[in-house]
Predict the 3D structure of the following.
Amino acid sequence: MSKVVEGLRYSEDHEWVKVEGGTAVIGISDFAQKELGDITYADLPEVDDEFAAGEEFGALESVKASSELLTPVSGKVVEVNPDLEDAPEKINEDAYEAWIIKIEMTDPSEVEALMDAAAYQAFSEK
Amino acid sequence: MPLSHWLRRPRNMKYYDKLIFELSKEGRSGYSLGFSSFQEASFTDIPADLLRKEAPALPQVSEIDVVRHYTNLSQMNFGVDTGFYPLGSCTMKYNPKINEEIANMKGFQGLHPLQPSCSVQGALEVYYNMEKALSSITGMAGFTFNPCAGAHGELTGLMIMRQYHLLRGDLKRTKVIVPDSAHGTNPASAAVCGLEVVVVKSNADGLVDVADLKPLLGDDIAGIMMTNPNTLGLFEKEIGEIAKLVHECGGLLYYDGANMNPLIGMVRPGDMGFDIMHLNLHKSFSTPHGGGGPGSGPVGVCEKLVPYLPVPKVVKTSEGKFDVVCDDEKSAGQVSGFLGNFGVILRAYAYILMLGRQNVKLVGKFATLGANYIKESLKDCYKLPIPTVCKHEFVFDGLVNDGSRKASDSETEREGATTLDVAKRLLDFGFHAPTIYFPLLFHQAIMIEPTETESLETLDSFIEVMRKIAAEAAEDPAILKAAPHNAPITRPDETTAARQPVLKFQDEA
Amino acid sequence: MATFQYFPHTEEDIRTMLDRIGVKSMDDLYSDVPDGFIFKGEYDLPDAMSEQEVRDFFENLEAKDVKLKVFAGQGAYDHYTPSVVPYIISRSEFLTAYTPYQAEISQGTLRYIFEYQSMICALTGLDVSNASMYDGPTAAAEAVKMAPSCTKKKTRVLVSKTLLPNVVRTIETYAKYHGIPLGYLPVMDGHTCPHHMKAELSKGDVAGVIVPSVNRFGIIEDLTGFADAIHEEGGIFIEYCDPSALGVLKTPAEWGADIAVGDGQSLGIPMCFGGPYVGFMACKKEYLRKLPGRIVGETRDTEGRRCFCLTLQAREQHIRREKATSNICSNESLMALFVTVYMSLMGPEGLKEVNSRSYAAAHYLHDELIKTGKFEEAFNQPFLKEFALKPLVPVDKLQSKLLEGGFFAALPTEEGLVTFCTTERRTKAEIDALVALVKEA
């Protein structure tokens, strides 16, 4: 069974969000990581790129699939995980350790609309 | 017969591990240009800074090295001439040898593409006659041969579609409808052509859902791209209604000819209401696929779209001579260097002449007969999601019994055999695998297309092996999971290949 | 029913199959097709021919073409094809295979593509090559399409007017429908004008610039300063090259280009009235993910043996669909094998010799033509095997005179110049015969 971490918020597209002040740390869930299989490449945005909630900010590739990354919150990218360029497999190793981007939120209330751990657990088991 | 007999069959292809670069030795060569009739001038008029600093690192090998190396490489390859190739949507029919002879005729090979028309009347006549022949077979009014492959044809066809709307001043039509079962090239070609893709869903019978289509139609629709029979091998019965609806909203119908084979001699896209279509000469018209090209993707159009065909075009003049037109106001433009892959067109023309008007009527029927025969013979061991009559191909959704089991007191948990495992196991028995994991509508899709050139005995031996594999899976999926056992190599590590790309000899660590 | 050699079905076979399916006739297999769509007419095709008749038919067509000594280039070159090449590429294991989806039984195809990629990188000096494109002009169009995706916010691509006309036209077609605005760089003394380029670059919207290394006048362009100027403005530098000429000319990497494209036809592929040829495309590794088409990579099998497979497929149409880098799938694989075998035979020395002989023949022809007094020098620029002259006699008359004598030469350019081209196949005797005819014109 896939791991779900308490205290994070989750989107229906299987991204997780950790709120640190005005910043949202974003990654993908363990469930999503398993579905995608061995990740071979992470196509990531650049710092200062701006996205609205629901917009595609990058993609993860496995050998025979490609999965778009959709940001659950709006804002400006302030940091991109530098480890993922050379070692995208870190997401397979621990999806909650290997965050993908950090976004400075323009509307922190967007987080409220996301699922909590229990709700996501139920959602991903459907 | 025990399964072990099937597991341990002698390898008919052998592993060979050289790259041509590894045979290189300074000072060897494999060419001869003879004595020069000129005084050797060594680029004296070219400034040194326009020349490369070092010679390119190409191999230095003698002629016999080259011949043996590539012969050895060829022996790790499987082609239609090696054995049965039931690759769905690819129509791997027999490639007649007379085609090769015709394409290799010196008189055709030595023609420069810009030679004046008066010196290439024979070559131009090939184009003209082929246009007539394909128009007759498909019910279209005209063809261009300039696209070099199927996807290139799709793109060209969509350019014609856009040009038609643009020249009418109908600028809003920027969307194209593509069914969810479509070949991946359809949405990709649409995107390259600057069109936005709108997906129409399939219904439970695997056909375009007309109810889902209706609300999508409007004055922003450039057209619809359809494959008929679709990628499940099913005939889109509602095509008459769909054509009417799309035409009523001002859109055009594009026919993806990848699945034309079962319709040859039976049904013409033009009669179904399609306005634009492409053919894959390397599928339906027997030209060899060459390990991934050269192909040829001629595009046919209905009468009103003939002026929009790309340039250059071959025309017949009033004096009965053939000529090439390079400028045409309405034309969608130039899509390739010259007049397309002439060598491939020659092969297809030879095939059509061999078929003639008599045998052309049997191509589709025999292709359809073979596919239905395999389907009916295997549907008890492989899941058949849509059990109706198919055309040239059909899709199974994995094994009925994949051998998986949950842990119990007496047994440990066991993972079942997947479609990939079935495909790999087929290689052990001297068959190419079917197309797998496509269409995307089913998770374990196995798409089988036998073509009309295969005998009952070949189909029977394929059926027998597919049944053996199903039996193996039920008994011990591990046999399949480790397959192939008899190929030159076992499964490659594709993950490492993608994570740390080694894309040229010079990259080797 | 008469038998036909490509259909192995006997009456009994058909019966057996119909019985298994549970239908009475093959027509019943089309019961799902509305009756109105079943074609009931006659096909407008000739009666089926025997092999003998097909052979006679094509010999008759072939005889309607005129065999000419080719002194023309403009994107198709009459280089010599060593006999080994057609021999190898007609091996059915290569010829009748599909795209190498099943790596375990396609190592032959995968290995030669890997070798091909390595050789294209050796010629261009760039980091990565794809498995091939349709032809040079479409490769150029794909490179132009790639530029904005490599540079993000920039959109416009500058196209040199010294590129071959069919290359420019193909770029224009792709750009028009894909929605890429183009700008043009005019000809200055037979060259791409660098001043105009700098002015255009300074507008800040240029995603890329495409320039030939050897242009449509046969002139070897001096691209000093191009890469710096383009990169300074954040653009991509695309070079259109003749790969045969890259055996001796400064490489795209040495010029600082980001992408190199061109037509592999000059590597011994017969002119064959325009195809099949093979487009090539190579780039710097930072643009690998934007590269269209198939790519082969090296890896190991489960037993640790070196092997090859299609890789980085997540860029491609069958996975990415409308978000793919391109719609290309079938490319020109067998023609990639063609040029790989050709380059193996020739090696660095052979390729150099092809160029030095073409050069010697072209310069001899050039000087002899000037001596006839029927032409003037058009440019005073370095050239390799193709060159342009200003004719002092009517071009139509000149061309028809040469045609009557069995020569295809003196192709007109839009400026009213004529071009000539020689390869290593052209002898001094042939050139002398051509010059003698010119004197009469």
